[in-house]
């Protein structure tokens, strides 16, 4: 198939690529970084500063095939997070991850690139994504617009697979003393008053949209993470036991990422009035330790 974006419409430093049959994408080259984006799923797959370590983890066993979600980068969970509230036959995490997105605009600036994508519709809801790639990190903004005549409830997440040198040497700060729903045990509690370190499988919805810092001792860097339009943060690692059950993740892949997701999950679902919109955003900035 021909690429849906004509090369003449792309600015310098952006190439139309085919990641796999039926999986078109864009590749970005800038003096400070390189990046890649899949139009299938509207999914940022990679961002690597020149001379540095990648910002996101993409599984080497990821399935690049229509109908399958891509393991890694920043999958878009929309217009529901997790299982559908009333219909178990509908796909996990919504329809955005396995839909073809279209390019609305690509612009270049001195610091990087700004990409606007149009995503799928679900009933009276439409989706769009604004993506800013700059020399020190990325920003993603997922917007839902309600074209209907009545309000609609939406849950969503920017499912960022943040690459780390070794998960056992990572500390996440900013969620101290926050209320937390442990989805593995279906229990509610409060996080400790110290930075979060990981020693087992974790799947938690934290009732906080606070600014975070991910301290990566192995790679000697700190990642500043902030969000807007969100009062919940999802933190997930399958750990060793969970990774072994995932066919599209190497057995040792769990060591190399931590998912820290800006979300509208759990009680943070958003009711969008008729004709209104809501934007969920996450900003990630690389800092050296």
Please characterize this protein's 3D structure.
With 289 residues, the chain is an all-beta fold. It is 2% helix and 48% strand. The protein has a 9-stranded antiparallel β-sheet with strand order 6-7-8-9-23-19-18-13-16, with no helix packed on it. A hairpin with a 2-residue loop joins strand 2 (23-30) and strand 3. It is globular, with a radius of gyration of 18 Å. The N and C termini lie far apart (45 Å). The model has no long low-confidence stretch (mean pLDDT 96).
Topology of this protein?
Layout: E1 14-20, E2 23-30, E3 33-38, E4 43-49, E5 76-77, E6 102-108, E7 112-122, E8 125-134, E9 137-146, E10 152-154, E11 156-158, E12 161-163, E13 170-173, E14 179-182, E15 187-190, E16 196-197, E17 202-206, E18 212-216, E19 221-228, E20 232-237, H1 239-243, E21 257-264, E22 270-272, E23 277-288
Antiparallel strand pairs: 1-2, 2-3, 3-4, 5-11, 6-7, 7-8, 8-9, 9-23, 10-22, 11-21, 12-21, 13-16, 13-18, 14-15, 14-17, 17-20, 18-19, 19-23, 20-21
- Helix content range: under 10%
Please tell me how large the radius of gyration is.
Answer: 18 Å
Strand content: over 45%
What is the count of helical runs? 1
Shape: globular
Question: The biggest beta sheet, please?
Answer: 9 strands, antiparallel
Report the average pLDDT across residues: 96
Unreliable segments (pLDDT under 50, ≥5 consecutive)?
none
Distance between the termini: 45 Å
Classification by helices and strands: mainly beta
What is the subunit organization of this protein?
single chain
Strands, total number: 23
Order of helices and strands: EEEEEEEEEEEEEEEEEEEEHEEE
Sheet with most strands: strand arrangement: 6-7-8-9-23-19-18-13-16
């Amino acid at each position: 198939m021909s690429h849906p974006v004509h090369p003449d419409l792309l600015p310098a430093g952006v190439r139309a690529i085919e990641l796999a049959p039926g999986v078109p994408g864009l590749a970005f080259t800038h003096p400070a970084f390189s990046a890649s984006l899949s139009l299938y799923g509207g999914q940022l797959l990679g961002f690597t500063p020149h001379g540095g370590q990648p910002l996101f983890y993409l599984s080497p066993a990821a399935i690049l095939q229509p109908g399958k979600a891509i393991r890694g980068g920043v999958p878009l969970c929309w217009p529901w997070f997790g299982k559908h509230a009333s219909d178990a036959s509908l796909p996990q995490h919504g329809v955005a991850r396995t839909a073809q997105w279209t390019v609305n605009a690509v612009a270049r600036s001195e610091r990087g690139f700004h990409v606007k994508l149009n995503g799928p519709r679900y009933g009276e809801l439409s989706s769009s994504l604004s993506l800013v790639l700059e020399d020190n990190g990325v920003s993603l903004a997922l917007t839902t617009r309600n074209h209907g005549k009545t309000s609609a409830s939406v849950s969503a997440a920017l499912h960022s697979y943040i690459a780390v040198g070794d998960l056992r040497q990572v500390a996440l700060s900013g969620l101290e003393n926050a209320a937390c729903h442990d989805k593995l045990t279906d229990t509610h509690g409060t996080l400790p008053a110290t930075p979060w370190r990981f020693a087992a499988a974790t799947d938690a919805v934290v009732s906080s949209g606070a600014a975070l810092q991910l301290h990566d001792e192995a790679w000697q860097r700190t990642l500043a993470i902030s969000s807007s339009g969100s009062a919940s943060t999802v933190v997930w690692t399958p750990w060793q036991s969970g990774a072994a059950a995932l066919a599209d993740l190497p057995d040792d892949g769990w060591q190399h990422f931590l998912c820290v997701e800006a979300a509208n999950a759990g009680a943070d679902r958003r009711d969008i009035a008729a004709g209104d919109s809501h934007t969920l955003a996450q900003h990630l900035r690389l800092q050296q330790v």
